[in-house]
Amino acid sequence: MPVNLQAPRPENLAPVAGVTLGIAEAGVRKANRKDLVVVSLAAGSTVAGVFTQNRYCAAPVQVCREHLAASSAIRAIVVNTGNANAGTGADGLARARRTCATLAAMMDLQPGQVLPFSTGVIMETLPVERIEAGMPAALADLAPTHWGRAAEGIMTTDTLPKAASRQVQIGGKTVTITGISKGAGMIRPNMATMLGFVATDAVIAPELVQPLVKAAADASFNRITIDGDTSTNDSFLLIATHQAGHAPITALDSADGAALQEAVLAVSRELAQAIVRDGEGATKFISVQIDGGRTEDECKLAAYAIAHSPLVKTAFFASDPNLGRILAAVGYAGIGDLDQNLIEMHLDDVHVVTQGGRHPAYREEDGQRVMKQAEITVRVNLGRGAASATVWTCDLSHDYVSINADYRS
Amino acid sequence: MPVNLQAPRPENLAPVAGVTLGIAEAGVRKANRKDLVVVSLAAGSTVAGVFTQNRYCAAPVQVCREHLAASSAIRAIVVNTGNANAGTGADGLARARRTCATLAAMMDLQPGQVLPFSTGVIMETLPVERIEAGMPAALADLAPTHWGRAAEGIMTTDTLPKAASRQVQIGGKTVTITGISKGAGMIRPNMATMLGFVATDAVIAPELVQPLVKAAADASFNRITIDGDTSTNDSFLLIATHQAGHAPITALDSADGAALQEAVLAVSRELAQAIVRDGEGATKFISVQIDGGRTEDECKLAAYAIAHSPLVKTAFFASDPNLGRILAAVGYAGIGDLDQNLIEMHLDDVHVVTQGGRHPAYREEDGQRVMKQAEITVRVNLGRGAASATVWTCDLSHDYVSINADYRS
Prior knowledge:
- 2 copies of one chain form a homodimer.
- By secondary structure, the first copy, chain A, is an alpha+beta fold.
- Chain A has 2 domains: about 10-275, L-amino peptidase D-ALA esterase/amidase; about 285-405, Roll (Ubiquitin-like (UB roll)).
- Chain A has 11 helices and 16 strands.
- Chain A has helices spanning about 60-70, 90-105, 130-140, 145-155, 210-220, 255-275, 295-310, 310-315, 325-330, 365-370, 400-405; strands at about 20-25, 35-40, 45-50, 75-85, 115-120, 160-170, 175-180, 195-200, 225, 235-240, 285-295, 345, 350-355, 355-360, 375-380, 385-395.
- In chain A, helix 2 runs parallel beside helix 3, helix 5 (about 210-220) packs across helix 6 (about 255-275) and helix 7 crosses helix 9.
- The two termini of chain A are about 20 Å apart.
- At the A-B interface, helix 8, helix 9, strand 14 and helix 11 of A face helix 8, helix 9, strand 14 and helix 11 of B.
- Chains A, B: It is found in: Cytoplasm.
- Chains A, B: Pathway: Amino-acid biosynthesis; L-arginine biosynthesis; N(2)-acetyl-L-ornithine from L-glutamate: step 1/4; Amino-acid biosynthesis; L-arginine biosynthesis; L-ornithine and N-acetyl-L-glutamate from L-glutamate and N(2)-acetyl-L-ornithine (cyclic): step 1/1.
- Chains A, B: Catalyzes two activities which are involved in the cyclic version of arginine biosynthesis: the synthesis of N-acetylglutamate from glutamate and acetyl-CoA as the acetyl donor, and of ornithine by transacetylation between N(2)-acetylornithine and glutamate.
- Chains A, B: Its main location: cytoplasm.
């Protein structure tokens, strides 16, 4: 059961001028399932992305990187589910390229203007013929209002579609930011991938789109973890169509730039957190906030040590305020000169650890009360500086094991 | 159910000249349970140890380090279960010191000649009075043949006691190496700690004992992982009583030194692997062997990425040859310039991946056959060099979640 997550209402997903989306059933792996999404972008759009750091990266990720490096005129995105086209070698690359070439021909574009995305089973041959056969239906379906359908079309074992939308006023114009995401483990049972696509009609200097997507990813998709497993296919794309009609944003630290950045981050964070809320077997949504570090990096080390610890995650599942597990995770996070006697810890508003030991006023029932909630914030202060970092994660439940152990059987 | 692990037979655990062991029921946490072990070492023994790298280390670990640094005449070891004396601040340190002082007075030693070890609940006050009250019974029980009882006396939620013994001929004399260990997660539900104690009567230059214990730990206890969680109390001690009567070993790379080192390593490895075989919820014993790395360190990165991946571990539980998960773990292990097209992988004798993709001759049923075994070796060749590393782990099962989620409830 997802944690405080609901399917998006289509009427809440504002269209982005210059973006249309079409969905089809291509039968990539299963019949009668929306498994192909084509996104058409108006001429003049700017696209930037961040991709998996996994060295074992999928063929479509390699092709995306090539096309983004070579062309500033991306005009279409094609996403299939059911097959990740990962671990497929030279043949997989050829099939990803053929997908782009076929769609380009149908849309009167160059192959390099198309970005391909695949998510699904690893190490199986991409059935490119089925994807090609589904393209005419997807193209016929193109419409600016199809964000909700597209969110469904990129799902694999997600239990709910994920979409978010914001509008902000910039230069007297309404600017829209709308996006979709998918994923429920960092890598799925056998189905890979976290995908995120966010589009805005903001008018922005093209060279700012890459730093904007990088900053948004670093504070959203790069701050979530379900099981610590990084997919071969993870991708996050930001599209700017420049059609909102306001004066161009030429710096992210201008007032307009900051307003846009904040809205893009809000959409990205909502999409990223939706993935955690729909995490495999998740019953709790956990925010891990580390303060008092010397650097943001060491705060992240401590946050991820807590967020990845199977013992901490099972304690959350059991609603057990098992403080020693959290402290032990901080201790092995890799902060070489950490002084355990300076550690403070809160579970929501409950002060549980002071000077590295149990707070004298702490009562087990107060910790228990917080641990029973569906959403919990763990705050640890390292007592060494002024840096902070927050990551979001979920608990580790019987269902996680069932989903991942039983999927292929 | 432990994987191919049986309780040691006392008659197979050879006494070590100069070492006697006594066990008592001190009622530290529960009544009617062997929870106190005292080990008495003959005068002239040399003791060296390696301890947890966790910055949040327990009070007894801090006291052990102090005493080993200050004295070369360690004469006694005291181990309690039921309470880890971790996360207990200055009061915990005082209680660990008092444990040493009380035992020293009873044995006519100095406090600094006693090493304390605690394992059990974190962040609760050590009931030092109960431990003291149990000491006379433990001292009255001292005998050279009590290795098996001592293995039981240091258990917490281990399902079986763990002990191992070897004898080798050195300089015409029989040299004995016998040891015990405990632990079933790197840190227990709420019970902390991996402990290992190995003793030998070999005659060896005292300054060689520390490098010997370090080398043995690096190839045994430092190569196992159950859940990646490093305890606050992990400790491994090597005791040399020098009573075997052969000419002293003055170099580890001499013939006699190598024979001793090999036997110490064999005992340490058996004790370490026993912990994995008794891992929480374990149904499979997995050896992860990485070859073809440029350095041993990068091989370890890849091995631990595989061994810690919840997705890989659940696949082993399900007997599912889900190769993509293993390849993805190698990909995110942190080897920056890894070429995925050079990866080769075997499951036991089955060649499953070649040149980074599925081997043409690989059939799913062959992978399935291996995955159903209780013991499995995953071999990955990185294709970049001549270095290797092996780690041992277990699968991630429903029982792991149950044990860790339900322990305190």
